[in-house]
Automatic annotation (TrEMBL), chain A:
This is Sugar ABC transporter permease. Residues 88-300 form the ABC transmembrane type-1 domain. The keyword Transmembrane applies. The chain crosses the membrane at residues 30-56, 92-114, 121-141, 173-198, 219-244, 282-303.
Amino acid sequence: MASLNEPGTTVRAPRAPWLTLKRRETIEGWLFVSPTLIGFLIFFLGPLIAVVFYSLSEWNLLSQDTIFVGLANYEDALTQNPDFWQVIRNSVIFAAGLVPMNMALALALAMALARPFRGVVFFRTIFFAPVVTSAVAWAIVWKFLLQGDAGAVNQMLATVGIDGPNWLREPNWAMAAVIVTRVLKMVGLNMILYIAALQSIPRDYEEAARLEGASEWQIFRMVIWPLLAPTTLIIMVITTIGSFKVFDHIYLMTGGGPENGTLVLAFYIYQQAFEFFEIGYASALAMIMFVIVLALTVVQLILRQKGST
Amino acid sequence: MKKGGLTMTRQGLFAAGVVASALLAGGACAQELRFTVWTGNDAHLAMLNGIAEGFRESHPDVTVRFETIPAGDYTQKLTFQIAGGNPPDLGWMFEDSIPAFIAAGVVEDIGPALRETEGYDLDDFSGPAMDLWSDGDAVYGIPFSTSPFMVFYNKEMFEAAGLKDPLAMAEAGEWTMEAFRDAALKLTEANDAWGFEFKDGEGYDSRIMHAIMPPIRAYGGHAWQDGECGFDDPEAVEAVTMLHGMIFEDQSIVPPGEQGDFFSGSAAMTVNQISRASKMPEAGFEWGIAPLPTGPAGAAPIIGQAGISVFAQGDKKELATEFAAFMTNAENVAVMAQFFPPARASVLDSDAFIDANELIPAEQMAYVSDAIKQGSVLPSHENAPKILAAMKPRFDALFRADADVPATLAAVCAAIQDEL
């Protein structure tokens, strides 16, 4: 029997199997992520790319007439359409009013409800309930409460001698009304995030600061607030994006009025696409909104990074 | 035996083939028409299905499926069905959306087919009623509902205010805009209610045109004509100034931001169509209907319309047109008249129509009939959605106590002129 390793014979190394452990793990990995990936490609990336192309066309949905117009939709929105800048202004006012109010109230509620006490679950539920309440029901009830003289809010104000405005009929008051009612609707979500963050801060830090003679305000400012910073950033980003995308609340409470005083970007896009059937123009506006939200998010991330260094 | 068995098998196969062919042939002949409507009312749908059953007498293989889309979403969903390549065969069309659909070429010209249909008599439809739905000889829809706006009033509140009945005033030729304003003020003072409520309480929002057009036309004005805005014409300014005075000086019309429902007794008068009479038995008070008040330009009845159109993208256009013709022949228009006032003169003049609505007495229905014959539809335009959207913020500014009416109406015209 000849030896396998006879001198002078060439020994061919056994061929490595194609399905190596690494390859197998790679394939398995792709298979695991494929449901999400396919969904992402079909329902997110695909439409996003399509919107870019639509935004370069003049496409009337009803007549199905489509003309390539290049950047004309963007040019019209940015330089010729006076409503567009009012819409941007309204969106900025809405966000500037809603984000700080929402975050401050959420933090205050979280500080009050983070520690266990008798009935804490009841109060947390009360403040979180509007988040899971139907947006339609919420808006209709508030619309009813905010009527002119006959509205419950104004009747309550009248009992203390205040002549309340016609909330949803005067542009400035209407904007204030939709901001406050939106904050009341959504503050519970941020409150829960802050409660989770507060509960993850070790009590030792507070106790150490207290032993050092720090006041409650100093403990909050020097210990708790810096440790809440990552959560604050996340909340700020989510709330800002949400405020620029607000649609249902405006649609149901004011329809963008009065005098276009609450006509915000998402509602304006809806109006162009689904009332005027100008899909190309609406797509250009949607791209502008995408860029604004993206820019705000990047700015907030940069500020956060600068803050942490 | 074997041979016989084979023969039996062949016969069996042949018989099965015949049955299968017959079934397939039957399947090929059976056709379904999809018809979109915005009513979900059981009585309306029963009536429509009854008409479809009648069509089966001449077309036994044809079924009609009525698909309800809520009115608020109707035009939008219909547009998406058409854009998505899944148009219905026929559908109801709103008066304010038909011009855009005609301009986009998505509704079929059924005029030639209707003229060739034996006994159809297209000329029986009154000319003004067909204005919106035709262009020369082309016919893009047939109005199945031509319903005038009437004043609904609470008789008990009129009595409490010591006022003459509006119907009696109309018969005496005294039911003018001045009389209307005076009545609204006295009704407000005499009752714990508003004198007047705009249609469905939506006069400051979705029903702006319903709110402003009756006085504007009664004063001899118009919204737009031949591409020119008419809101800033003196007649329109005078009419809207009167309306503004009623809201903010007299405080006799339910103001913006308040609710005052006629049907629950918190307003003494409103404007609506006779289909709303179905709500009156639940109202619990004596009521009546009267024509719109006259103005310096005389009587100017306003009608709301809805029509039936065949969609150009449909693959059964010929059959759909046949059904549209069947549905709007004199016999079926008379059937539909119980809910939808007709545009066919022969039906309109018949006693059957005058007696059609059991809630409204014949003498009041006679005014409905007159209004249909003399009335004109609300202003329409192929750019109506953009025009109304441009008008809305300017009218918001108009409906404020300190508004400068002429300047605001001039701003309305400036805002919509490009779309006209």
